[in-house]
Amino acid sequence: MEAYIYNLVNLIAIYSILAVTLNFIMGYAGIYSLAHAVFFGLGAYTSSWVAQNVSPSIFVSYPAAMVAAGAVSLFLALPALRVRGEYFVAASLGLQVLSVTIYSEWKGFTGGIGGVLAIPPVDVLGWEVFRPGQFAILSVAVLVLVVLLTTALVRSSFGRNLRAIRDSESAAASFGKNVPMIKTISVVISAGLAALAGALYASYLSFINVESFTLDTSVLIMAIVIIGGTGTVAGPIVGAAILLILPSVISYFEFLPQTEIGSLQQIIYGLGMTLLMIFRPGGLVGRRPGR
After folding, report:
1. What is the mean pLDDT of the chain?
2. Residue range(s) defining the domain that contains residue 139
3. Residue 176: per-residue pLDDT
């Protein structure tokens, strides 16, 4: 039971990081992306390669993952963010579909369908972190760091620029704001921090493959943000906790065949998002309409 709880804590922390980083661009800049799993996967694959071939140190493999994800995000952000938001959604969807093919076929880096095996434990100042309890401390610490960093950015002048762009790009541009540059920087920051979740995921499981980084994962991350509450600090964490605990609760329903649990989860996600958009568009943590 203890191992199960630690496992749940680790997964909630990892998906909370993903949701917090997506909320950074979605909730505050109004940039909707369906490619967040791309950077999740890139962080996992890059940190795994560095850990196996260079060093498993958290101060080497994790920054390498962030740099790789930030660099790749430029290929999405630079052309797409010069147009309106719906074009970015289409571009991000295209990148997500393309990335799955690349992750499946680039066997020298990703291991193809078989994935990457025997990923070494992450090294923190000479200590190998591999036990679930130890890793829970690390994953929660990284989550806290990401929350503090994104919160500081949101409360800075950069964050005010993001909110101005979200409310009206034309008005922000009329006040002299470089809208494409600000949006590009926000996407790079979001992607780089999302890579931390991928690095944690790879270090924790010691095995990764493409199935964890598909469009379904990107949709799940977006569902977490919307259900928890966009443009809030606690919303993504609340959403991650609910949507990751939910499968465990459903599995206790003895009258449900195990093969149908996945389908029921998708129905609940879709229904929950629809009802929230109608009755509480700000999410569970966000403000009610009119308040």
Report:
1. 88
2. 2-211
3. 85
Token representation of residue 73? 């995000």
Give pLDDT, residue 237.
95
pLDDT > 60? residue 290 = no
Q: Is residue 35 part of a domain?
A: yes
Rounded Cα distance, 16 and 79, in Å: 28
Instruction: Give CA–CA dist 61/47, Å, rounded.
Output: 5
Number of domains the chain contains: 1
CA nearest 122: which of 194, 210, 63? 63
Q: Quick one: what percent of the chain has pLDDT higher than 90? A: 56
pTM value is 0.91
Q: Two tokens at 236?
A: 């993504």
Contacts of 41 (CB under 8 A, 6+ apart): 99, 103, 198, 208, 210, 212, 213
Q: How far apart are CA 231 and CA 27, in angstroms?
A: 4
Q: What is the 3-state secondary structure (H, E, C) of the chain?
A: CHHHHHHHHHHHHHHHHHHHHHHHHHCCCCCCCCCHHHHHHHHHHHHHHHHHHCCCEHHHHHHHHHHHHHHHHHHHHHHHCCCCHHHHHHHHHHHHHHHHHHHHHCHHHHCHHHCECCCCCEEECCEEECCHHHHHHHHHHHHHHHHHHHHHHHHCHHHHHHHHHHHCHHHHHHCCCCHHHHHHHHHHHHHHHHHHHHHHHHHHHCCECHHHHCHHHHHHHHHHHHHHCCCCCCHHHHHHHHHHHHHHHHCCCCCCCHHHHHHHHHHHHHHHHHHHHHHCCCCCCCCCCCC
